[in-house]
Amino acid sequence: MQLEVIGVGGAGCRIADAIRAADEEAASSSFVADAFAFDTDVDGLTDLGAIPDTHRHRYGETIDHGLNGNLHRGFEVGEEYVDELSRQLDQGQPSLADAFLVVVGLGGATGGGTAPHLVANLQTLYDEPVYVLATLPAKSELEDGPTDEIDHRAPVAEPATDGPTDDTETATETAADSEPATIPEAETRPLAEANAVETLEQLDGLANAIVCFDNELWLRPREGLGDGRQRLNRELATRVGAFFGSTADTGGLDGDERSRDGRDRRGESGAETVIDANDVGRILGGESDVVSLGYGTQRVESDDGGGSPFGLDIDLGLGLFGSDSSVDTGAAFSAVETTIRKALRGKLTLECERENAERAMLIVGGPPAWLNRRAISEGRETLESATGSVEILGGDAPRSGGDEVFAVVVLAGVDPIERLETMRAENR
Ligand SMILES: Nc1nc2c(ncn2[C@@H]2O[C@H](COP(=O)(O)OP(=O)(O)OP(=O)(O)O)[C@@H](O)[C@H]2O)c(=O)[nH]1
User: Fold this and answer.
1) Which domains does the chain have, with CATH numbers?
2) What InterPro entries does this protein map onto (predicted)?
3) Who lines ligand 1 at CB under 6 A?
């Protein structure tokens, strides 16, 4: 499937940029139709690398360096500029997209204030689902966060009342110096959790689904967001790319035509079980459910090309297209089994009780000869018993010439989530 990826606010733009960069690297499984960056802070836009200039848009010209966490103002600005932002999308081809992905860092005012208006507007203008990808704030951003979760080596700065809110330069300096990490001014956002709760409330009933990434969970001990955010954004982009990049680009074909054909528009060998935009829609749902992603990977020897030179896929019982007899069945089984276990049991983008998931999806990808069928089918059974989900879908994503096996687990409708419940209770 093809997505319009739209970043709003500092975090949203940086993450959308990282997604676009990852998508360019994985050209054969590209899923980003267009990527846009919308911010009130011009510096944030200038620092992006992958999103083309034509797709970066600064709005609210009278606003200097962002809204500094004033969410009330953020909602006003969002409402005022939403039509202007939606018009920017015409630089791309939004009507051809299978879905929209609005990316936002919850906690700020620009992204948090604009995202609900933008999502509502896109729902009105287009028929395709509008998903949100949202980060949750780190505890170290809160001025009065629990002291044992703050880097004690680093004095927490007073919240900025003016001056630049983009912390790129400060972060770069901190990383470059080998001094103990300090938390740059802009990272201190006393209202981050309260803002996050409010934006989530606003998104409820508007977004089809909200894929969450918890900064608190992903930062290392004593690592500030300024130091860690690039790594976090790459981790997130990898997961988003593994998920959406594994879906078939139907090129206008419906599911039946495509599975008879066995190949998708990208020319990659067709998967045995193809996941398409409709399947994604079924699992993510349309009720603003919270979604968490799990991911596991293992390096393997490349099968160099996959498929027979005569275009015949000879099944030797090894993998989906087991044309490479050099891949040991036991090794393939174990690689698939391990990646599925990592994806299911390892760190999720948002920690949650797996057994609460109402719907779930497992995608296994990698060199065709390594995609051991038995291990994939056992993995689906494991997911089924781990989640007790009513609805489970599985798919595979053969990547000829690749050198890793990967698995993505998508858990949807995972309420109640302790992290969100606590945040809501503390910010009533
Ligand atoms: N993962 C990740 N999170 C970020 C990043 N930058 C900021 N955040 C998080 O996103 C929240 C909002 O920050 P921004 O996106 O910079 O804020 P904004 O939407 O631009 O709003 P204002 O600065 O208030 O105008 C912060 O509280 C952080 O939790 C980033 O690059 N990566």
Assistant:
1) 3-245 (3.40.50.1440), 292-412 (3.30.1330.20)
2) CetZ, CetZ_C, FtsZ/CetZ, Tubulin/FtsZ-like_C, Tubulin/FtsZ_GTPase_sf, Tubulin_FtsZ_GTPase
3) 9-12, 14-15, 40, 66-69, 105, 107-112, 135, 137-138, 141, 165, 189, 192, 215, 225, 229, 232-233
Pocket test for ligand 1, best of 6, 8, 13, 14 (most atoms within 8 A of CB): 14
Task: Give per-residue pLDDT as tens, 312-328.
Answer: 333 344 445 544 557 89
In angstroms, the first-to-last Cα distance of the chain is 39
Pocket test for ligand 1, best of 215, 220, 293, 427 (most atoms within 8 A of CB): 215
| Overall pTM surpassing 0.90 (yes/no) | no
* Nearest CA owner, ligand 1 atom 13: 108
Residue 393 has pLDDT above 70, yes or no: yes
E strands present in 40-119: 56-58, 99-105
User: What's the pLDDT at 61?
Assistant: 84
Q: How far is the CA of 135 from the centre of ligand 1 (A)?
A: 8
